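Q: Start with the shorter request: fold the first protein.
A: Done. Sequence, then structure:
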Amino acid sequence: MHTRHLHRTRDIPHHLLVALAAGLPSTIAGADERRFTYVHESTVHAPGEIAYEQFVTWKTDRADRPGFNRVDFRHEIEFGVVEDFQIGLYLPDWRIEWDDNDSSVRFRDVAVDGILALTDPNTDGLGSALYAEVKLGDELFVLEAKLLLQKNIDRVVIAWNGVAEAEWEGDGYDDDKGVFGQTLGASYEINPRWLIGAELVHEIEYAGWSDWGDHFVAIGPNVSHRREQFWITATALFQVSDMANESDFQLRTIIGFDF
């Protein structure tokens, strides 16, 4: 799509082109290379692009369950459908969980999501998008909506998500609640291969749509590495609130492949 500009480079000395290229920010992170694992960026795949993402989230150290550990697995295939819109299909999510008294392996859900980009963080100053996800599992039904905002400043990307979720669980789906929250991330591109940053997660439950719970807050560093057709991003979160039924530490890793 840039061929209409190629003929102009013949009139520019080679040494000047090299100097200009050296002075430009070396940003290679795109819609298919996530800088964050808890925060969604506002960019989407171009039409026809396909990517696979493998999520692994380990949670441990709960005050109310000695020896608690849980590992969640998600497998997503993303498709660029039309300009500014992509969908994601999640293969069956499942988890391994154990503590000092018990252990289990179980299927959680399947899901589909869609992201509609509204503005571009590179050309419009502030990027924005709308995100929607539906999960359906064994005695589980979830509707989730997010507002995605993103600001790009040279090598730095700052992204914020506002989250609203409705959940129905249990026999007859009679255990219902709302979950409201926000995630915030900042990432700095050291070079085209390595990025470092931090993420924050804040959530509060609204049990039975009538009773507000405690605020859960976790924060921690992240790192991302990327190659031509492969990338990996990991975030370690530490709870800074005081909720006994939430993990004090969690580690999420996402591995992505482009096709």
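Q: Next, the second protein, separately.
A: Sequence, then structure:
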Amino acid sequence: MNKRVFIGFLVVVFALLAGWIFYISSQTRQPIPMQKISVDWWGSGHADVKSESFTHWNEEDPPQVPPTCGKCHSGNGFIDYIGQDGSAAMSVDQPAAVESVVTCTVCHSEKADTLTSVKFPSGSEVNFNQGEASCGACHSGLDAGSKVDASASGYGDDDLVPDASFITPHYSFSAATWLGGETHGGYEYAGKTYIGRFEHAEGVQTCMQCHDPHSLQMRENPVDKNAELCAVCHSNVTGFADYRNIYVDGIDYDADGSVEGMYHEIEGLRNILMQSMQQYTKDKLGVGIGWADSFPYLFIDTNQDGTLSQEEAVFPNAYKAFTPRLMRATFNYQFSIKELAGYVHNGKYVVQLLYDSITDLSTAIGKPVAGLTRPASDD
């Protein structure tokens, strides 16, 4: 390829990238037909009136969403939270209605339009683009890793904490994951530095640059409307399932001998962390531990065989033998699971949390895990 052809090729590439950035940015400003908005919204999770997110309290007496949950699990509760109903802003003052989904008036109001910052469970406050603070307000998590230290204050790393319970970040905390060490959503170990917000690429850096705010799906691909948005740069992506195979740095973080997509690297590290937690609880506490996808998630592995049976994964068998060290590890274990797209939103931050939890446990069980790699915080 001669110099003139190469320069011409670069000009075409830069023109395509510039066009893509302009298209993504303009999508958030273009008027959208109301009919399309309605169709998109009705098919979204925000409109799913049968979802557990909006019906969990239906059988309560009376059926209502508690103030601590109302901000995110009731459209009326969010209206209360931002003060659109005339109440004090930034708090939910009373129980909210069940089956109250995220309607137009929840996100489109005077108070919602002027909401520009979000206070996260860690206490960190972050400014958002106009219209996106509403996203961050509910996708910020319920608790931050700092609550572990507050709950275990005064106890040694391996001391049992009386009446301790499993502290979790809750779920769908995509904003906290995306911002990483800027909002300290995970349990961040003393003396370690953590990656901040995931900058990704120009034009695909914020909530609404990537997600349609009504359908919640990924935005259209500006080059090919029948292709995935991510396929512009990641040619191996043809559908959502392919997101799991995206990687950018060629590092085998979980030391399994192969370089995989960030989703699989996180899965590998999470499996190592569970094995470490199982050995720690068996050797140090004499009470085996296991995880199942039902509340309260951590259960006693009564026969210590490394798996949970249906009989073991029941509420009366909830795991309660917590030390500060175990509380730290289990928080990050849950953090890596309950943000389903953490590998997309800020995979390296999740890897750091898992790596540090494994390392912390290894000092107690005397079994260092060789070959694992921790992402640098200036990546």
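Q: Describe the second briefly.
A: The radius of gyration is 23 Å. Residues 9-13 have pLDDT under 50 and may be disordered.
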